[in-house]
Amino acid sequence: MDLEMKSGKSRGPMHGIPILIKDNIDTGDKMQTTAGSLALVGNIASNDAFVIKKIREAGAVLIGKTNLSEWANFRSTSSCSGWSSRGGQTKNPYILDHNPCGSSAGSGVAVAANLCVVAIGTETDGSVVCPASVSGIVGIKPTVGLVSRTGIIPISSTQDTAGPMARTVADAAILLGAMTGIDDQDLVTMESKGKAHSDYTAFLDHDALNGKRIGVERKPQGKNQFMHALQKKTIDLLKSKGATIIEIDYLDEISKLGEDEFEVMQFEFKAGLNSYLSSSNAKLKNLKEVIDFNNANEDKAMPYFKQETLISSNEKGSLTDKKYVEALKKCHLGSKEIIDKVITVNKLDAICGLTMGPACSIDMIYGDRWGDVFLTMPAAVSGYPHITVPCGVVYDLPVGFSFFGIAYSEPKLISIAYAYEQASRKRTKPSFKKSFL
């Protein structure tokens, strides 16, 4: 890349930029792709994932892979985010005994700690925006279909997507543009034809909040007074920049879809992982073999929490199963109807709210305790885009503010998030404090 630049050739804004990617994304080089699992140690892909081909073509320099919540946090219901049997425990760069969230824990921490310029994470429900929020950075969960999933170890074909993580909205927008593209191996990307952009920096507008109508849940998020004060301060700033804030009711209705969402994930995880493993260079060729490996190596593979989610997923039937079809209709189509209706009726440009609370403590034995603020599900189950931007700190830990909207509304969301970011300037550098006390 340096030689190209010296000879006068520039591939664009990603030329020569050092980037890290989550260790569930294939690279056709000497690096392994393991999803953080000892069961996949030795899996070296034959080819780059489609999204990696795109960023290499754009000139990015891939310098490594990041740790993650093992199996993208789809192994156990009592897991500790940011821990994997291969990589150990990722730590929050602001207070080291606190949790980095996940599953894209390493990607979020690496960006916050300045180990790279930008990183790529993946999300099924919260796995980009959650670690971005608690690491005080920007994360974009794109519309499902904007970015190819070919070559990424899957959970849910309905909800999975890769997304950019960066210290600024501008950097995230640059990386997003390099990641998009139609892939004939991932048919859902066909839906992005005519809706995707190769340059999202065109939508960076300081005055984008002026005239926008933005919805916020009427009921206060959580019970913490500092979080309430932070949301009020953020909403007041949005108003001061010309936005009209509309109180809406939608979260209670969306939250009722949680059981159906998990049902869909389990069915799709079994089908998707079996397909991935069967054609990979991994020694294990299906989910059952992964489960058996973990059982045979329990002390190393499962020293803290077990694999009940892997087991329950393996017990599911095929994607023609009536339970799967009904759950998919309820959660995916149902969530779209709820969000589309509230946006249409109230003539909204976006919906906003605190992304989640400050990071909980690391607890590998008993698992995560994330509190009562977690605004990831609406955009996740619908497959809609979601961006989180730093909005302040609580207990010396970063908190993010979210904007999400209908499918392929990334240009509008990026412009809103950028205008807010520039007006607020709330990102602070990590302090690497050893403990909360």
UniProtKB/TrEMBL annotation:
GO terms for molecular function: transferase activity. Residues 5-413 form the Amidase domain. Gene3D superfamilies: Amidase signature (AS) domain. This is Amidotransferase-related protein. InterPro entries: Amidase_dom, AS_sf.
